[in-house]
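Bug #2210: token dump truncated for HTH araC/xylS-type domain-containing protein?
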Amino acid sequence: MSLVIKDDTNAVLAVDEIKSNYENLDSPVLIEQDHVLEYEFAKANFKEMCFDGILLGYGSVNTQANIQVEASELDPMIGLMFILNGEVTASIREPSRKLHFKNYQHNIIYNPHNEDHVNLIQQPELQVFGVAFTKKKFLEMAVGNGRVLEQHAEIIDKNQLLLLDRNQVVTYKMMEIINSIKHCNYKDGLKKLFLQSKALELLALQCEQIEQHSLPQDPVLRLSPQDIEKIYFVRDIIINHVQTPLSLVDLSRLAGLNEFKLKKGFKQVFGNTVFGYLHDYRLEMAQDWVRDPSKSLTGIADELGFSSIQHFSNAFRKKFGLSPRQMR
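Reproduced locally. Full output below:
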């Protein structure tokens, strides 16, 4: 893959070649590769993993100046792009389109032309994650797997540009999957199986999100990147105050959001209400703790903010089908 890096005035700063895994995309075994790029104006670290027509990659970029990056000699792929931190603008020349990403945003892109063009502003850490499928793999998966995938496949089969009209919000479930991929401890065949399942799960979650947003009876609240950061901040507050939870009024005040946007936005990002999330988090913590013989059930109930051992036991049984004592 050829890289040409330019500054704001279009002056060429660097020309580079990256040995990528593109020629190994259909490998039946998992192939992993790490990359480090260092220049005076930027540093990048990223990892690629590929097998069976699927490519996963993630990494970070530190830029000391605004730069333009042009990549060529790429086989067109269908890519799910997730921006976890920072800003990036992707440009497509034919037809002319620009897509600006900020924190916690994602989209799906198929560019039939074998080039990518991105603009990066000066920033301490751009964090990106991506899942890409070869055209053959994607068209095979799309058959009989839902309206959204079949509509995507129709566009791709015609070799036309595929791009959502606007970026979608990276949800908590998506972040959990991304983190599980980045911290996967499996090896060899088991790792390949795990990565494949998670790549497909991310694609399914994106399709579900697109379908939900297309329903007229379920209008979607438009959340800015700043709103999303505030909602994640509220999630952190909830986790740090499990024993003595704050009210919606207090959470709204601390986050700088009105109650309506907090409640609807939280449900949109995390798929649960504020206090439903708190309830589930308590029980997930309890599930781990009940296996620790050094912790008493009464102590667990108290530490997680349940009003009584009976309340804790009933909630635990309702969620997991067993009492805390039976699971222990």
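Output looks complete on our side. The chain has two domains: 2-213, 225-327. Marking as cannot-reproduce; reopen if the truncation happens again.
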